[in-house]
Amino acid sequence: MHYRTGDLRDQLAHLGHAVVQAGLVVGSGGNLSARAPYADECWVTAAGTWLDRLDRGSFVRVRITDGAALDNGAAPSSELGLHLATYRARPDVNAIVHLHPQSVLLLDAVGAPIVLATTDHAFYLRRVATTPFVPPGRPEVGALAAAACADGTNCVVLSRHGCSVIADSVELAHKRAFYLEEAAQLTYRALLLGRPLDPLPTDWLHADNVTA
């Protein structure tokens, strides 16, 4: 079955329901956004929305250059700055998924890096960056995340906070979010077994012919 197509808000609503069902976020935590390729406006979840209860009215249209809300009386997410800074730094990005995945955050809290252990991890994630802790909603959250992904990194762990996963489509951002949490879960389980995972060979991980 093909991924949901059409209106970006419908695609994001589909993603939101799926990530809640998968346990990657609870309550009204996390936020989502998407834009048409190279557009200067995006749809971002409104403040306080529950990601498994989204519909078209749950999004605010925002101009990327100055952060102005263009319609819908609702206020955008308090992490709007994260989305705007990332779009400005990465013109190729059309979707941003900010979640609070438990395994990702647990490993961050104990200082254990996420190991990319499978070919799927290599293909979809390539590498994972981590930014220092900054209280949620601060402008520094967006600035640090944008700097971390400026080199082409697509998965950023916001220390003690969550993750920012980006892609050129909602579907690919969705896949990356799932694989990031899977990589974290495998890393954690290996640590429990007392057998830390060996990462894939660095020269192979960054090869141009990596395939899923």
Detailed description of the structure:
With 212 residues, the protein is of the alpha+beta class. It has a single domain, classed as Class II aldolase/adducin N-terminal domain (L-fuculose-1-phosphate Aldolase). Helix content is 36%, strand content 15%. The protein contains seven helices and seven strands. The protein has a seven-stranded mixed beta sheet with strand order 3-2-1-4-7-6-5, sandwiched between helices. Helix 5 links the parallel strand 5 and strand 6. Helix 3 crosses helix 6. The longest helix has 23 residues. The radius of gyration is 16 Å and the shape is globular. The two termini are 19 Å apart. The model has no long low-confidence stretch (mean pLDDT 93). Keywords: Lyase, Metal-binding. One of its GO terms (biological process) is pentose catabolic process.
Query: Would you identify the CATH architecture?
Result: 3-Layer(aba) Sandwich
Gap between N and C termini:
19 Å
User: What is the CATH top level name?
Assistant: Alpha Beta
Biggest sheet character: 7 strands, mixed
Taken together, the total number of domains comes to 1
| Rg, nearest Å | 16 Å
Number of helices: 7
Percent of residues in helices:
25-40%
Strands in their spatial order, largest beta sheet:
3-2-1-4-7-6-5
CATH superfamily: Class II aldolase/adducin N-terminal domain
Order of helices and strands: HEEEHEHHEHEEHH
**Binned strand content:** 15-25%
Principal-axes shape call: globular
Protein name: Fuculose phosphate aldolase
Domain Class II aldolase/adducin N-terminal: 10-188
InterPro entries: Aldolase_class_II_sugar_metab (IPR050197), Aldolase_II/adducin_N (IPR001303), Aldolase_II/adducin_N_sf (IPR036409)
Keywords: Lyase, Metal-binding
